[in-house]
Design a protein that fits this description.
By secondary structure, the protein is α/β, with parallel strands linked by helices. It has 13 helices and nine strands. The strands form three sheets. The chain has a five-stranded mixed beta sheet, with helices on both faces. It has a two-stranded antiparallel sheet with strand order 1-2. The protein has a two-stranded antiparallel sheet with strand order 3-9. The radius of gyration is 35 Å and the shape is rod-shaped. It holds the Pfam family rve.
Length: 355
């Protein structure tokens, strides 16, 4: 019967061991040899059993009073870890993702092992998003844009490279009213600090600091980062977010990424390096804003609409069609094509607003 070092030995088992040793010594065995045979030292038996009084002692370790570790988490720190892990941004991710993401925002709450211990004790090591399955996420409030720089949409998408396992990140901001790409850049990381700097440069280039611009996005980590939130407050930009994992709540960015990756010049084999990716995006943005006639804004270019030139262009088209109708009325069964100016654009409109 070998005893593992440090193992707790219940009182009935101790009683059995002492009885076996006593029987062995009565039959002429040395007590030290009997103890060694059982995998115990004679000092251990002396702690268990007081021969003069015949008293057998229980293991005192379970009931021992131990001072709390000086580095033990406080209740406030434990609550902060649980609160952070259950936020929408992190509910579906393990500590291995959460801790580095917080560090990117210059925040340190605890190590990954500390996060695991706290989650285990709280019974939340399983996917925490499952606990939120009954939570209803309401549709974002409808937003309406009636002029440029009033409502923007932004997102981040992957750009493939020629190096296996590597990709770049395309940051794009589109003005929902004009469809103009007001901001575009490529980075090798998805980071809140980069997003904040990117937004600041875009706001400056459009000269709309503290003009009440609303920025709509999904719930990605860079979008929800503290750095990004602080920068938005500094620039006077309001936030709007999609429901988790509902791409339809951010349709303008999704549509723009599709247009980007279906462009005839898109490198199907991926980009060679970051410089090449940035150069391609610069050329694409120039084409998209200045040459591409967008179907959603009556086939004018985003830059024409952004600069307020589309109303006159559409009026000229309408006059051209009216003259053509008057010249050959038999060729026109119905009214001429609708070239009316689009005076407002909706994001996530209510059903009754959808034509």
């Amino acid at each position: 019967m070998g005893q593992q070092r440090g193992r707790l030995t219940p009182l009935p088992e101790r009683h059995k061991i002492i009885k076996m040793i006593n029987v062995a010594t009565l039959n002429g065995a040395r007590k030290a040899i009997a103890c060694k045979t059982l995998g115990l030292s004679i000092r251990t038996i002396q702690r268990w059993y007081h021969e003069k009084s015949g008293q057998l002692f229980e293991d005192a370790r379970p009931n021992a009073i131990r001072p709390a570790p000086t580095n033990k988490l406080s209740l406030k720190e434990t609550a902060l870890i649980l609160k952070t892990c259950n936020e929408e941004e992190f509910a579906s991710y393990p500590p291995g993702y959460i801790v580095p993401t917080l560090a990117d925002d210059n925040r340190y709450i605890g190590s990954e092992s500390t996060f695991y211990r706290v989650l285990k004790k709280a019974g939340q090591l399983a996917d925490r998003s499952l606990t939120k399955s009954n939570k209803k996420h309401t549709k974002p409030e409808a937003q309406i844009a009636t002029k440029p720089n009033e409502l923007w949409s932004w997102d981040i998408s992957y750009l493939a490279t020629q190096t296996r396992g590597q990709h770049y990140y395309l940051y794009l901001i589109v003005d929902i009213f004009s469809r103009k790409i007001v901001g575009a850049d490529v980075y090798d990381r998805e980071l809140g600090e980069l997003a904040a700097d990117f937004l600041q440069r875009t706001i400056w280039s459009e000269k709309c600091v503290n003009k009440g611009t609303v920025l709509h996005s999904d719930n990605g980590a860079p979008m929800r980062s503290f750095t990004m939130q602080a920068k938005m407050r500094d620039l006077g930009v309001a936030s709007s977010y999609s429901r988790p994992r509902v791409s339809n709540d951010n349709p303008y960015s999704e549509s723009l990424f599709r247009t980007t990756k279906y462009h005839h010049s898109w490198p199907k084999d991926g980009f060679k390096n970051l410089s090449e990716a940035r150069g391609w995006v610069t050329n694409f943005v120039s084409w998209y804003n200045k040459i591409h006639k967008h179907s959603g804004i009556k086939y004018v270019t985003p830059e024409q609409r952004h600069n307020g030139l589309d109303s006159q262009l559409l009026l000229n088209r309408k006059e051209t069609y009216l003259k053509a109708q008057q010249a050959n009325p038999t060729r026109w069964r119905n009214n001429i094509r609708n070239w009316d100016f689009i005076d407002e654009v909706s994001l996530n409109p209510e059903s009754k607003d959808v034509a």
